[in-house]
Amino acid sequence: MEGDRVRVFNFAAGPAALPLEVLQQARDELLDWRGSGMSVMEVSHRSKAFLAVARQSEADLRVLLSLPDHYRVLFLQGGATAQFAAIPMNLAGADSCVDYVSTGSWSNKAIGEARRYCRVQLAADAVDSGYHSVPPQSLWKLTDGAAYLHYTSNETIGGVEFPFVPQVDVPLVADMSSTILSRPIEVERFGLIYAGAQKNIGPAGLCVVIVREDLIGHARAGTPTLWDYKAMADEGSMLNTPPTFAWYCAGLVFQWLRRQGGLAVMAQRNRAKAELLYRAIDESGFYRNPVESSCRSWMNVPFTLAQPELDRSFLAEANAAGLANLEGHRSVGGMRASLYNAMALDGVVALTDFMRDFARRHG
Ligand SMILES: Cc1ncc(COP(=O)(O)O)c(C=O)c1O
Asked: What one-character-per-residue DSSP string does 287-312 give?
């Protein structure tokens, strides 16, 4: 396909690879967007043409996720990190208790921020496993009357993914930044789902929030208007100027996903990619992934080499072979391959071939 010659296999954790077709469409429409003689970046967010983009992107997302009518979709700024604060501000009073599950870096960031706004109880903490597993729900301590329970369905740094959806009587809140759209989800089990866009949705600059209608309209006094879900929902996420280009690109990604056959098809592909990589790691005797097998992420696969002094050569040789951005997060080192929707099976085949060859030469 055109563009293949210059494109590498990009294993970045986010901002991450986008589907080639989406990039090509954005390129083709850049100077003259749908006959306007302008790019989409140069038109008003309140123009009919852009409002149609906003409407269509939400409609496509609703189809992809089979979203029931009583869920609102917000396209917000500030990334998932802004939601770490906006969630307690909108869903809990200052005296409320909220339950959080700690499974690694991102859930701990969410917890740290929530502590500034309400009383946080740790329902479960994976620290004893070195954050390499998810504590089974039978061991959790839930707080009666908690305003919500928050968990991070996939820890992007640790590569730990929930193998189950928690069953709780309070609104369930999930940070799905690195797993949304990778497979179907039962939205009705959730009160709120949020995800920074720059992994499986589109370019950085957007955060998608999907929230059950009855949970909005209760923001505490002092909540910035821009972070008040009701105020944003009432204005179609356009209380102020939204990141129009990122939103447009997200819309192109949603249409691309629909053309692929939807999330059930993506799930099959994502499972196959992850299985291929974990098998290559486990069979190698040279690479190692520390995560308990039932909690291994389909999206982010961290791994170490038997000899850490070979890390630099591994990365340099991988880069030379067109396998980019395999360096692990700066907080943990080692390697990490992110396998979001836009990473084709070909990329994982190329990676595992390279890994086998590298291990044979250096093992
Ligand atoms: C699981 C998870 N939550 C939250 C964030 C923070 O997202 P943002 O940079 O959009 O604020 C990230 C970023 O990588 C993430 O992976």
From this structure: EE--S-GGGB-SSEEEEEESSGGGHH
